[in-house]
Amino acid sequence: MNKPVRHVAVFSLLLVFAVLVRATWVQAAEAGSLDDNPHNRRLAIAAYSRPLGNILAGGTRLTGSTTTDGDLKYKRTYADGELYAPVTGFSSQIYGSTQLENLYKSVLTGTDSRLKSPSDVLTGKTPAPGDVITTIDPAVQKAAAKAMGGKTGAAVAIDPATGAILGMVSTPSYDPGAFAGSSGADQKAWQALEKDTSKPTVNRALRQTFPPGSTFKLVVAAAALENGLYDSVDQPTDSPAPYLLPGTRTYLPNEDTSAPCTNASIRTALQYSCNNVFGHLAERLGQKKVAEQAEKFGFNDDKIDIPVRAAKSVYPTGMDAAQTALSGIGQFDDQATPLQMAMVSSAIANDGKLMTPRLVDRVTDGSSGVLEKSDPKEYSTAMSADTARQLKSAMQTVVDKGTGSNAQIDGLTVGGKTGTAQHGVDNSGTPYAWFVSYAQNSEGKRIAVAVVIADSDAARSDVSGNGLAAPVAKAMMSAALAPGA
User: Fold this and answer.
1) 88 three-class SS
2) What pLDDT, in 10s, does the model give residues 365-376?
3) What is the pTM of this model?
4) What torsion do the CA atoms of 458, 464, 466, 467 make, to the nearest 10 degrees?
């Protein structure tokens, strides 16, 4: 063999050797990453090769599976998809998954190692998928959606004693079953959803923040009592009306100029939603003490997982005295999710103890075996039992004699707080209407609710927490606690 031929032969052998080494590396060292690559078609084929496990509420399946004509044999179906989409999220053959569908994907597809029996380990058999049992009360969920009607907004209801989320609605919603498959119709449905300017896929209950407006006055009231500014919600607060924002020439107006807000007590100030009182209280407390109280309720915590992660509700820092006063009425840069404001009401209703909100009660193996259980867990002691008792009483006054009359329910003790928050530059947008509340029946069972209406067909002058949001809260509280519920 001459020298050039020998060089070619050696080079060819090296190429063959390199190919063998690369093939071995791919099959061994990179096998795991290739198996986990979301673009690996075999993963989707395996995931949809049989019916998926289900997500349930109140013993009813919110999800199902049906056969298709493609290589992805089954696709996800949804019962009352629009109603429960804020709870389940979606699982699509093309567009992936969100919320509970995503967080519990391994359980629902049967690939979770906890589902394997000893025989499955020996035989390599894929076990049957598991189920996810939510804390949602279908009656509360349906009542909320019906009461919301065509309004844009969100509502959250919590069991104060356990942190269980009983209802979670975001409107407008969407049907996750419309794009669960991979057909042309599924793709068109997704494209239409993506172009929808009302953003139905945004979970406004968890993932969108709003200025909380006057509902934040509950936080300031708690801070004033906890820090010893007053011993009782019935003491005069020495709050001038009109109240001049410190360091400015701007007076903080009250919505009702005839309301008895001058030096009003906390009870009266909540009843008439006196801005001067809570602006003055926030100024006196200072941003640090207000922030400390807000954070006991969950503000500024970016890791509130229910298990879906909620957006961070913000009580700002770096404010001057005037800005701190504005923050005391839920304006300036205050931001809160509906979940956060439900947590505020929940802590007050639960004698000052705030339980960690939770959407999932347990995860099962599809039958009687429990893979994980979500037990009630205390998030914080947000305030003393005495402070909570006084605030509950003051909130009852708001509903019985004040701005929250639309939340009254025969046979139940109801407390609440209305709120109307500015929206847009110089309040150019339609204001946000809020209502936070709690209710208790004669047996001591309680529910805490927060509702925000971001847009409705009401005239701007008719936008109010009592007019728009309180009826939604009333419907949810009635569904949970009213006699015969």
Assistant:
1) helix
2) 988 799 999 999
3) 0.90
4) -10
Q: Are residues 183 and 236 located together in one domain of the fold?
A: no
Q: What residue ranges in 265-391 does DSSP mark as E strands? A: 353-355, 360-364, 370-373, 378-381
Question: Which one is catalytic: 65, 92, 97, 214?
Answer: 214
CB-side exposure of 89: number of CA atoms within 13 Å? 21
Residues paired with residue 415 on neighbouring β-strands, in sequence order: 438
Distance CA 84, CA 142 (A): 9
The answer to whether the CB of 110 falls within 8 A of the CB of 104 is: no
User: If pLDDT is split at 50, 70 and 90, which confidence band does 25 have?
Assistant: low
Tokens representing 414 are: 């109801």
The DSSP call for residue 233 is: T
Tell whether 164 is covered by a domain: no
User: pLDDT per residue over 44-88, tens digit each?
Assistant: 777 788 899 999 999 999 999 999 988 889 999 999 999 999 999
| Residue 246 C-alpha from the chain's centroid | 35
The number of domains in the chain is 2
Instruction: Number of helices (H) and strands (E) in the chain: give both, helices first.
Output: 17, 18
Residue 94 CB neighbours (<10 A):
14
Which residue segment(s) compose the domain that 422 sits in? 213-481
Asked whether the predicted pLDDT for residue 9 surpasses 80, the reply is no
Whether 417 maps to a domain, the answer reads: yes
To the query of whether residue 106 is one of the catalytic residues in this protein, the response is no
Q: What is the residue-wise DSSP string for 366-400?
A: SSS-EEEE----EEEE-S-HHHHHHHHHHHHHHHH
Sign of the C-alpha dihedral, residues 441, 446, 447, 448?
positive
Single-letter amino acid code for the residue at 481: L
The DSSP-derived string for 53-72 is: --EEETTEESEEEEE-SSSS
**In a shared domain, residues 180 and 254:** no
